[in-house]
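2 proteins. here.
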Amino acid sequence: MKLFFSYLKRHIRLLLMLLVCGGVAAAVLSLYRVPREGLWYAFLLCLAVGILFLAVGFCRYRSRHRALRRALDRLGEGTLTLPEAEDALEADYQGMLTAWEEDRRRIVRETAQTQDRAETFYTAWVHQIKTPLAAMSLLLQSGEPDPALLRGELFSMEKYVDLVLTYQRLGGESTDLVLKACDLDAIIRAAVKEYARLFILKKLMLTFTPTELTVLTDEKWLGFVIGQLLSNALKYTNQGGVSIYAQGDRLVIEDTGMGIPENELPRIFERSFTGENGRTIERTTGLGLYLCKRACDLLGHQISAESEVGKGTRVILDLSRMENPKE
């Protein structure tokens, strides 16, 4: 009964209009002295036809209502199948619902992908941070641990923690960017000072040629990028050293490490890509260079790499272009 009243409410204007038209027609016919029996006969005939059309319309209305309810029940199964639209307005509503459903599926898909990536990253991160923990445990068990080695492993753990925090900040809506003119040499020196102990422990040479450049950037985020590039150079370099110098407005960080295969170079800035070297040396998160690329995109800088297997890698930061930096 509730459904029937809903149907009547939907067509209340049409019913009122028909009643008014019927009243006007009866009044006009009475003015021409049409016999009352004829008026009642016409009224009953129109009423019968109206009831028939009303019943047929209600059956169609109820059928479509049930079809929509079935579609709603199937929505929980991840499908949206609507009955064919009967008019333009209904087609518009269905188009809007279809668009919403597609948007919902896209959000669900992207959320699932983000969760999968985060789970992969944190799983790899947990395994990675176990390495310095295990090394520190062995050093402490040796009786007289070398303080320099302990500080080196502790520094590695701090960098892994910073990597997680950076991953979270770059994945959020706000990255607290503050763009200003910065002394590039001061940023480089701060990063070099931070990693100096590891260079000493690995007995690698560090050559820094002052750039004398002033760049429009965010000091903290550019410092993170340079520090991460130094960390990568340390990780994959066992002999020789690392050189830092400028070529015009481009900063170059060059190492004499194992190098990157040519077929892997286009993918090194992708999320979670570790490559052959990452799988050979240790289990890595594959996020360091990805976060560098993300930070450079936010700053408006460009980052690229050149490498030759067995000879080393050159990572180039182009600091001259500032296209649409995001504040």
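next one coming up
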Amino acid sequence: MSAAAPLLQVEGLKKHFPLKHGLFGGEVVAIRAVDGVDLTIAPGETLCLVGESGSGKSTVGKLVLRLTEPTAGTIRLEGVDITHLGPDAMRPYRRRAQMVFQDPYASLNPRMTAGKIVSEPLENYPDIGASARKERVAALFEQVGLRPDAMQRFPFEFSGGQRQRLGIARALALNPALIVADEPVSALDVSVQAQVLNLMMDLQEELGLAYLFISHDLGVVEHIGHHVAVMYLGRIVEYATKDALFENPRHPYSQALLAAAPLPDPRAKRERVVLQGDIPSPINPPTGCAFHTRCPKAFDRCKVETPQLVPTADGRLASCHLVE
């Protein structure tokens, strides 16, 4: 998708969780949370991963950071295959990829001061002295819009937006190249969401950060994204530039997501796409195209043949028999 050398390259990524099934738990089945995902993120780029709850978005984020071990596939960070690196070999690469969590309160230790929370990553890599750490933390506070004199306060003394700024400062402490942001503004008021998003965009421009931005809010995605990967039941069904996706979604699931998103102008009209039922269980996904049980455009081929994620005539990737 990008001419720049990839910062992150994911190929064939899978995560299946074994689950005992049956009356006496003798049968073992697998929850296919992620079932063959390919992603590429260039330096300084934001790739937004979107889809309904249960589609596997957050699991992809954890796999990329090796917080969860993959069942199959490869993860390359800055050209190095980190898929099977042990804890010691993985240690340098953990500096290069950090995470901002969804809940800006639960992700912060309530017994630690704000300064201690932000400095903790630096203490795990003791190549920075105590005085330099304190200066670095003060600079990070200013960088995310917090006063350095707030370093002695505790998380409960901050608002939700300020707590998320703390989370961002902590993620920045080790100078990462990639930040995985898992629904980072969904728990915030709308007015505060815009402030945090603008901060993330400013930091990206200033520091050259790349984001894997996980969200279900298409308004947020339209504001911050460069590319968008649409996920359904553990797989990518469409991968396009943000402008291309919002102007002309090709996959029926992408069309349904955009049709359900609210428009800024209440007088504007958009064709409604109604999906049948709920997202199927990843334990027993449908045969053929996983989306065919809900797709208003499905035909017989969709029930038996799984479409591949292939390039389309307009340069995007889509997994649908109708756009091959």
